[in-house]
Design goal:
The chain is α+β, with helices and mostly antiparallel strands. It has 2 helices and 10 strands, in the order αβββββββββαβ. It folds into 2 domains: 35 residues; 128 residues, Ctag/Cox11 (Ctag/Cox11 (Pfam 04442), Sandwich), CATH 2.60.370. Belongs to the COX11/CtaG family.
């Protein structure tokens, strides 16, 4: 049997599989990171979009009253209150007021924590008809901050608002005579206690 020289043996094919797998994994990782980033960015973008356009009945925010005088046209504004998952009693002090377009109005909601412990909630809101959202403007509102109530505590919370005069110039609103401002309070979970650094005394238990 003739001897076979090493140089005559076929050379093994280069191992390209690992390089290709690494490239595919990198691409998949980039796509996943992009999707996660997009999901986080979608929340503030959606909030900005709703505030800008009044989409889904989202109201507008202003720092001061309109510069023009109120119009002669008036609308009735009704106030709705709801609780979702909180031991609270929540209701407006007035169920309905008649306001002139462009008139700044202050109304109050009352909320009572009926439980035996402190609880925290935050209100979501909208107005109906939904097309009115881009004209219903709030100067001050309790919905922008978390509300923590002690056991049995009652709190009065103001809402300062006006209906933008541009509302009257929109032909779609010619037949609108009633607007409903609705709030729903949802529970806010309390953050877990902050872990103590090594060697830091635990002041919750007092000095030993």
């Amino acid at each position: 049997m003739p001897d076979v020289q090493p140089s005559a043996l076929p050379k093994p094919a280069p191992r390209r599989g690992l390089g290709r797998d690494a490239a595919v994994a990198s691409i998949c990782g980039f796509v996943v990171a992009l999707m996660v980033g997009a999901s986080f960015a979608a929340v503030p973008f959606y909030d900005w979009f709703c505030r800008t356009t009044g989409f889904n009945g989202t109201t507008q925010v202003a720092g001061s009253a309109p510069s023009s005088e109120p119009l002669a046209r008036k609308v009735s504004v009704r106030f709705d209150s709801n609780i979702n998952g909180l031991p609270w009693k929540f209701e407006p002090e007035q169920r309905e007021v008649e306001v002139a377009i462009g008139q700044v109005v202050t109304v109050y909601y009352s909320v009572t924590n009926t439980s035996k412990r402190a609880t925290t909630g935050q209100a979501a809101y909208n107005v109906t008809p939904l097309t009115v959202g881009s004209y219903f403007t709030k100067i001050n509102c309790f919905c922008f901050t978390e509300q923590t109530l002690a056991a049995g505590e009652t709190r009065e919370m103001p809402v300062v608002f006006y209906v933008d005069p541009a509302f009257a110039a929109d032909n779609e609103n010619d037949t609108v005579k009633n607007i409903t401002l609705s709030y729903t309070f949802y529970p806010v979970r309390e953050p877990p206690p902050k872990p103590l650094a090594s060697g830091e005394p635990d002041q919750r238990k007092g000095n030993l």
